[in-house]
Amino acid sequence: MKNKWYKEAVFYQIYPRSFKDSDGDGVGDIRGIISKIDYLADLGVDAIWFSPLYASPNADYGYDISDYKAINPEYGTMDDFDEMVRLLHGKGIRVIMDLVINHTSDKHEWFVNARSSRDDPYRDYYYFRDGRGKNGKKPPNNWTSFFVGSAWKYEENTKQWYLHLFDENQPDLNYFNPRVMEEIKGILRFWLDKGVDGFRCDVITLLSKTAGLPSGKKRIALTGSEYYIDGDRMEEYLGELQEVLREYDAFTVGESVFITVDKALRYTSEDNEYLTTVFSFDHVSADNRFGIKQLPKKFNLLDLKRALTRWQNGLYGKSWNTLFWENHDSARIVGRYVSDRVNREEGAKMLATVLLTLSGTPFIYQGQEFGTISARMTDIKDYKDVDALRSYALLKKLFGKKKAMKKLAYCSRDNARTPVQWDDTQNAGFTTGEPWLKVAPSYRDINAKQAEKDGNSVLHYYKKLIKLRKGDKAFVYGKYQDLLPKSKKLLAYLRESEYGKLIVINNFSLKTAKFTLPKGIDGGAYTLITSNYADSPKKLGTTALRPYESIVYKADGKNA
Ligand code: GLC
Q1: For residue 270, is pLDDT > 90?
Q2: Is the separation of the CB atoms in 502 and 478 below 8 Å?
Q3: Would you say the CB of residue 166 lies under 6 angstroms from ligand 1?
Q4: Which member of 64, 168, 172, 255 is catalytic?
Q5: Which of 41, 112, 304, 320 is deepest in the core (most CB within 10 A)?
Q6: CA 443 to ligand 1 centroid distance, Å
Q7: pLDDT for 559
Q8: In terms of Cα–Cα distance, which of 186, 190, 194, 191 is closest to 83?
Q9: Is 267 exposed, middle or buried (0-12, 13-18, 19+ CB in 10 A)?
Q10: How many CA atoms are closer than 13 Å to the CA of 166, on its beta-carbon side?
């Protein structure tokens, strides 16, 4: 396996709209981010993935781009951006942009032109098709959108339908047209020439649609997805993007919905690298029956272990994993995988330990580092996300109003999009104005300032773990082995490499759980590296772990 910077790095995701507002308009901005660079450097992160900073009408808050070469004026100017990149680079922090190229905004000039007439030169940048049935009033096929409902929108003006796998304001780009790929390459060059270090490639595995756009097998969710997820031209498209990326040695992580290990190896294997790495979702998978993202699913440690074993071992030595618990599309992990009421801090620290002791590149989502919990808003008027609002309409039909609201409060993407809780002053120190999305009520107890002050906080624990990982390659390069695949309470694993051996034991339950030293392991060779309890046993042996107790032991290569 090759040693690489991105394998040894810890990444951080910023959702700019909610990170830090500098001018009181209630919307996060670049100058706000600049004011927090010392905080990020102090946390110890090496790279930042920015959710979209580009011009956008905000139908999907930045994931609908109207100009790929402009900064959203709500976030600042191109000069602000350049300054931010310079300052981050000055601290040794790399900059990863979000690359949203499956679709544009319907306000992008390509689409504005395309929809104006059937003969427009941009018409073929998108999928415009005649409808089925009498008068073509039925959509061209039965595909459904990720945001619920048909994936087609009828255009009265030109009497055709266009495809949108997400919101109707996000028309899909047509990669059968080679001009589209040429445009995208120009966009890549534009940002790479500015000095950015790579891209997180939004829903990248949806780019290749099956020719003819055939109707799919009917299901409640994602009908037609067999004709657009990991389509047959995916590698060709990724290869074309690589032509540019390679010149700059750029890093890429592809958001890959429903990806399998085999597919991931096709896209990312070390000797055939189309993408540097992928985001896979098995370990945080939601109940997808209704096509609603993150519908609550009861946490099951055995499912998590199976996912970890599949991915940790599946890619080891051949490719490279990403590690994450949260992002802007999911509810907070504290409250999903551990309680947000009982032993909350121990739980958050345990999840920090797992994140930072597995094989792969860890990504921390803003606020996760001090244990932020989901907002759980109870009034539908407080929700802003298009997915939440559309899902709610469907959930109401399926379960009735009360249950629908409860599910939404548990799973909505807005849960993680509320403003970062910097302190306990009004609006959590995020803005002096009216925040675009309500601050979560937990800010009085859970905030960065408080966490900085408390030496025993989740934040300090993250810092400690990040430092440990960066100071010891055993955390980075060790091979994973699940030591207790059948335990329903304990997640215990070995990481083994030329840099030594680590054993990590985590009690995912709120009850005491007994860890018995597995046969063949010399407990005496291991010493305690860190724990989320002050008095965990110094030596590895049979022991009872307390609620959410998480302990890391290390043995040097020679004496293990
Ligand atoms: C990705 C993004 C999500 C967005 C969608 C459409 O899943 O992470 O936020 O809504 O793509 O661009």
Answers
A1: no
A2: yes
A3: yes
A4: 255
A5: 320
A6: 26
A7: 47
A8: 194
A9: buried
A10: 27
Residue 147 Cα: closest atom of ligand 1: 10
The pLDDT value given to residue 510? 98
Q: How many residues does the structure list for the chain?
A: 560
DSSP class of residue 52 equals P
Structure letter (DSSP) for residue 229: S
Catalytic residue flag (residue 236): no
Q: Name the residue with tokens 């000055």.
A: 90
Mean of pLDDT values over 366-387: 97
d(CA 280, CA 307): 10
Active site residue 202: yes
* Test site for ligand 1: of 101, 203, 228, most ligand atoms within 8 A of the Cβ: 203
Dist CA 315 CA 269 (whole Å): 8
d(CA 16, CA 2) in angstroms, rounded, equals 33
**Entry pTM:** 0.97
The two structure tokens encoding residue 449: 């300032």
CB atoms within 10 A of CB 506: 25
Tokens 């958001």 correspond to what residue?
255
List CB contacts of 401: < 8 A, sequence separation 6 or more: none
- Residue type for position 343: N
What's the CA gap between 189 and 68, in Å, rounded?
A: 12
